[in-house]
Amino acid sequence: MRKKSVLEFTLNGETRAVLCEPQQTLLEVLRDELRLTGTKEGCSNGNCGACNVLLDGVLVNSCLILALEVQGRTLLTVEGLARSDGTLHPLQQAFLDHAALQCGICTPGFLLSAKALLDEHPLPTESQVRFWLAGNLCRCTGYDKIVRAVLDVARTQAAQPPSVSATPV
């Protein structure tokens, strides 16, 4: 019998603790232990992008990361994109508006990849979007609608005035 370890980390803004075995991948812990099934298993070898998540803001394949490597770190999955009131993240809404999804297996990975791109490059070119999303494979939609959705969000966010926070004087 293998010894389980306690894994403590921040998941979608909340501190979480879970028991896991040393050989379990982050993908396995998310799906099997935490029942967060938005992160999909596609290839299990890092080639398809279906399991992409953001670890400390960096895009990673959760199938290639041992869960214990996440100890004390911050993780964002597709379940953490929408606001707590249920309002969809702009990328989620754009995917719906542009019909940029079909079966949904690849969609969570595309959403997290697109978020990572826009976090790093708020107004990317079409070439940058296509390059950045090249690590995600889709068998249903074709990629044009996905690219258009990401570009639409980038343009919309660039057109919005920056938020100003009131600072007491």
Give the CATH topology of the largest domain: Ubiquitin-like (UB roll)
The proportion of residues forming helix, as a percent range, comes to 25-40%
CATH architect. name of the largest domain? Roll
Strand content: 5-15%
Describe the structure.
- The protein is α+β, with helices and mostly antiparallel strands and 169 residues long.
- It folds into 2 domains: 5-79, Beta-grasp domain (Ubiquitin-like (UB roll), Roll); 90-159, DNA polymerase, domain 1 (Orthogonal Bundle).
- 31% of the residues lie in helices and 15% in strands.
- It has 5 helices and 5 strands; from the N terminus they run ββαβββαααα.
- The chain has a 5-stranded mixed β-sheet, with helices on both faces.
- The longest helix has 16 residues, at 144-159.
- The protein is globular and about 55 Å long.
Summary of the model, kept short:
The protein has 169 residues and is an alpha+beta fold.
Task: Write the topology of this structure.
Layout: E1 5-11, E2 14-20, H1 26-33, E3 52-55, E4 58-61, E5 74-76, H2 90-97, H3 107-120, H4 126-132, H5 144-159
Helix pairs in contact: 2-5
Structural key phrases:
DNA polymerase, domain 1, 5 strands, 5 helices, Ubiquitin-like (UB roll), 169 residues, 15% strand, alpha+beta
